[in-house]
Amino acid sequence: MDIFVQQVINGLVLGSMYAIIALGYTMVYGILGIINFAHGDILMIGAMVAYTTVNLLQHHFPHLGNVPIVLISLVISATVCAMVGFTIEKVAYRPLRGAPRLAPLLTAIGMSITLETIAMVVWSPDPLPFPQLLPTDPLNVIAQTDTSIGAVISGTEITIIVTAFLVMGGLLLLVHKTKLGRAMRAIAENPNNASLMGVSPNFVISATFMIGSALAALAGLMMALEYGHVHFYMGFIPGLKAFTAAVLGGIGNLGGAMVGGIVLGLIEQLGAGYIGGLTHGVFGSNYQDVFAFIVLIIVLVFRPSGLLGERVADRA
Questions:
Q1: Count of CB atoms situated within 10 Å of the CB of 196
Q2: For the whole model, what pTM was predicted?
Q3: Residue 288 to residue 306: CA distance in whole angstroms
Q4: Of 11, 83, 214, 280, which shows the fewest CB atoms inside 10 Å?
Q5: Rounded to whole angstroms, what are the CA distances from 181 to 8, 286, 310?
Q6: What is the C-alpha separation between 167 and 281, in angstroms, rounded?
Q7: Is the pLDDT of residue 310 over 60?
Q8: What is the pLDDT of residues 108-157, one digit of tens each?
Q9: Which 3 state secondary structure label does DSSP give 188?
Q10: Rounded distance between C-alpha atoms, residue 130 and residue 292, angstroms
């Protein structure tokens, strides 16, 4: 039981990060109907900017507390990533509106490689250590006994899970209760009619990219705090898995992105925890990445609309 609980905790932490990344995918798809495969590398840029900000703050303001450092680095990295998302949309995607679906896909791959190259040149091709700013002392969920190893969770992991659910709630309020959210739903449903009613498609689409990119920065900071290092290639695999989570939950569905991320994280961690015993050591936990893509294949074959159903537009 303690092993099972520990794997569930690990799955919730991992799934929370996937969910936040998947929200950016699903917002863009819901309005434009395209997949921004550069989204994972925007996450990486956010983590790298946070790394630089944290080191500068610790050097110039050594008496500043860890929580203010985290908050300041989040604001700066989210702002930078929002600007990156705005630039990518304006330069790479806006000229291709109405083009065949393959064109934006190839452009996204090109932007992904460009961002990775820029990060490699500006920072380093080697992993960089990220300071531990949040509590890492384990809190017992199931205490260790003579017959069990117990189950623990750290303050950093609690922060990640709580933040993910708060972000999800805030995003739902934004989409369903604000003027900008109403405009997003109008553009997603019919951009021509929405523009006739005074809604600016360019403004709404740019705002969507900026919000999604800011969420990617948050996910990048979470990953840096959890794993303790940043790397120019750190966004590629999580980006693919978050896309899988968005498809699993129902691409274009905000609630589906959250559910898909949590479910995928649980599947990965439970699979990694038990595959060794089930296969008598033939496969180990290093095969956990396989589970995400097995899930993607199964969903595309048996339920292409996802767990909660694809929803590209709601009536505004």
A1: 9
A2: 0.85
A3: 21
A4: 280
A5: 34, 41, 18
A6: 39
A7: no
A8: 888 889 999 999 998 988 889 988 887 777 776 665 555 556 677 788 88
A9: helix
A10: 27
Residues 6+ apart with CB under 8 A from 87: none
| Tally of CA atoms within 13 A in the half-sphere of 106 that contains its CB | 6
User: 151 and 142 in contact (C-beta within 8 Å)?
Assistant: yes
The tokens of 183 are what?
């405009």
**DSSP H helical ranges for 33-65:** 39-60
Task: Write the pLDDT tens digit of every residue in 27-55.
Answer: 888 777 777 888 889 999 999 999 999 99
Place of tokens 């791959």: 109
Burial class (CB in 10 A: 0-12, 13-18, 19+), 70: buried
Q: How many CA atoms lie within 13 A of 122 on its CB side?
A: 14
Q: What is the 3-state secondary structure (H, E, C) of 242-253?
A: HHHHHHHHCCCC
Cα–Cα dist 313/311, whole Å: 6
Measured between alpha carbons, how far is 164 from 169 in angstroms, rounded to an integer? 9
Q: Compute the distance between CA of residue 130 and CA of residue 76 in angstroms, rounded to an integer.
A: 16
Terminal-to-terminal C-alpha distance of the chain: 47
Strands (E), the chain: 128-129, 138-142, 151-154, 229-230
The CA distance from 1 to 147, in Å, is: 11
Helix (H, G, I), strand (E, B), or coil: what is residue 197? coil
| Cβ atoms 19, 164 nearer than 8 A | yes
8 Å CB contact between 141 and 161? no
Q: 250-287: string of b/e by CB count within 10 Å (b at 16+)?
A: bbbbbbbbbbbbbbbbbbbbbbbbebeeeeeeeeeeee
For the stretch 264-304, pLDDT in tens is: 888 888 877 666 565 655 555 666 777 777 777 887 788 77
Q: Distance between CA 239 and CA 127 in Å, rounded?
A: 18
Which residue, among 299, 296, 266, 274, has the nearest Cα to 16 in the 3D structure?
A: 266
